[in-house]
Amino acid sequence: MKKTLTIEALSFLVILFLASCNPKQQQSTVAGNNIDTLAFMQRGDSIATAMQEVLLQNVMQATKAGGPVYAVTFCNERAMPLTDSLSEKYNCRIQRISDKYRNPANKPNENDAAVLLKLSASNAAKPLFVSENGENIYYKPIKIAMAACLNCHGDEGKNIAPKTLEVIRQKYPNDLANGYKEGDFRGMWKITFREK
Ligand code: HEC
C-alpha cells in the first residue's frame, strides 16, 4: 500500500478485498494443526479496520469539538474503553502496541517486540498471523497515515502545539510517542482471538 493512501481509501480497499473473496472457497490450513489461517486473517483485518474507523472518527470529532487539547484528554479517557468495548463485541482482545508507546499499557511484551521489529523493517509490511502455544494472534502495521496524526505524534515545537504538548506531558509523563513523520511506522494492531 502506498503511504499516501487515506484511511478512507484504505478501508474501501479492504472492503473491496473482503467482498471479492468467498471465505468458504478459500479455506487454508496450517499443516498439522487445522487452523484456518485465512479466516483468522480476514476476521483480524475487518476488526482492525472497524476499530481504526471508530478511533479515527472519535478523535476527529473531539478535535472539531474542542481542538487538540480536548482531543488528547478525550483519547486519554476514551481510547481504552472504546477498544475494550469492540473487543467485547468481536469476542477477542484488541490492542494497539508500539515500541514508542504513549500509554504504558501499549508496551510490547517479548513476543510482540519480535513482531514489531519484523513489521517495522519493511514499509510494505503486511499483516501477520501467529498461532503459537494455543493462542491465535493477528498483527497489522499502523502507519502515520495522515498529517493530522502529527498534531499529537509529530515534532515538539513544530507539529505539536505548546498547549497540546503540555496536556500530553501531564497525562503521559513518560511519553515516547512523538517525533514521527507522515508515513512512518507507528506500531501495530494486535488481535488475540478467543476461539482456538
Ligand atoms: C488529539 C491527539 C491525537 C491525535 C490527532 C492522534 N493521536 Fe494517537 N494517541 C493519542 C493519545 C493521547 C494516545 C494514548 C491513548 C491512551 O491513553 O490509550 C494515543 C495513542 C496512539 C497509539 C497507541 C500506542 C501508544 O503510543 O500508546 C497509536 C498506535 C496511535 N496513537 C496512532 C495514531 C495515528 C496513526 C494517528 C493519526 C491517524 C493518531 N494516533 C492521531 C493522541 C492522538
Features:
48% helix, 4-stranded antiparallel β-sheet, globular, 15% strand, binds heme C, disordered N terminus, 196 residues, alpha+beta, 5 helices
Instruction: Output the strand order for the largest sheet.
Output: 1-4-3-2
Query: Based on DSSP secondary structure assignment, what is the total number of beta strands?
Result: 4
The overall average pLDDT, rounded, is 87
Please trace the helix and strand order, writing H or E for each element: HHEHEEHHE
What proportion of the residues form beta strands (DSSP E)? 5-15%
The low-confidence parts are 1-5, 13-32
The chain-level structural class is alpha+beta
| Morphology call | globular
Task: Describe this structure as you would to a colleague.
This protein has one domain. It is globular, with a radius of gyration of 17 Å. The chain is built from five helices and four strands. With 196 residues, it is α+β, with helices and mostly antiparallel strands. It has a four-stranded antiparallel sheet. Bound molecules: heme C. The site of heme C has 28 residues, from helix 2, helix 4 and strand 4.
